[in-house]
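Handout, section B. The chain below has 207 residues.
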Amino acid sequence: MNYDYEDDDMLEEAIEAYCVRCRETVEMESPTPVWTRKGMPATRGECPTCGGAVFRMGKTSAHDATNRPTAIKVANNTRAKLSQDTVYIACVTVDMAFAEQLADDLQKSGIANWIHGTESEDVNWAGGVHPALKECARMVFVLSPNAIADETITAAWRFFREKRKPIIIAQVDSAAPPDEIRRSPRFDFASGDYKATFRQMMQALNQ
């Protein structure tokens, strides 16, 4: 059955989201309920100022009319299911909206990706390394003060560094990268020009 979002109360409500390009919170236009690949509800829309895509995590009444997809499961230790060129996006929950936008744009550009999850059932750092870290060949580290302070994010990029796998930094807030990866290619998405910065990062990923 087709669901008409024009009749939904969601469009009558102001839904705010942070725009990476404008570096401010805006009231999104054309909000659409979506589900992330891990089965988490979110809303995708457009920035009224620059027209860029914006995300906001969380469930709304509009999600009630959509079917929640099955969350993508990462491979276990015995059978790899992620392609070898998959990009691991390391981010904390507060930066998830940017990570989802980045993942969506990478996917449209033909680059498969896996977003880091901090749920206890998803990552058991005490019991060993998450399989996605072993299977992914490249990492995009979403750099922010919260990411630097997060132990699981630190464990993720350190594992990549120990395995000599390339790490690219996507900076979304004022923060200096850890000394161990300060020489990694860094792209400042907080500068305001998302498209140009994304193109530059794509060139680095394709090298």
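Note. The chain has five helices and ten strands. Compare this with the example in section A.
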